[in-house]
Specification:
Elements lengths: L2 E7 L5 H11 L4 E5 L4 H5 L11 H22 L2 E5 L7 H12 L4 E4 L9 H6 L2 E3 L2 H12 L2
Parallel strand pairs: 1-2, 1-3, 3-4, 4-5
Helix pairs in contact: 1-6
Amino acid sequence: MNWIVYLSGEIHSDWRQQIIDGSKIHNLPITFTSAVTNHEDSDAAGDMLGAEAVSFWRDHKSSKVNAIRTRTQLENCDIAVIRFGAKYKQWNAAFDAGFCAAKSKPYITLHDEDIVHALKEVDAAAMAWAQTPDQIVQILRYVTRD
């Protein structure tokens, strides 16, 4: 079986690449998908629909265009990895976790210990909580083995 793993959340570090590289080292049967991780491109996703004078409407249109990709990829993945970083609030990641929980889609959270309390409900619905990309790779090694 080829697994599809959706990587959600924080875009300001290389955690995605660490997981992808670690999975390649172990030759795991995984295809990775993700939202658009270029912040400027994501913010501008709705600009082709026309300029907006009020930032709310620009964000509203862009979030809907981005949701086409996100919802489709979340629906089609076998498991999601949802990263919460310390520097920014990843409301989109929390939304993705809620989507997974509502759809009974397995997900793993990835975050530092100092935000455990803030994420207690999100972690409670997760299949696992990891603190490092390597722990994610080890979980993926286990669940994808024959």
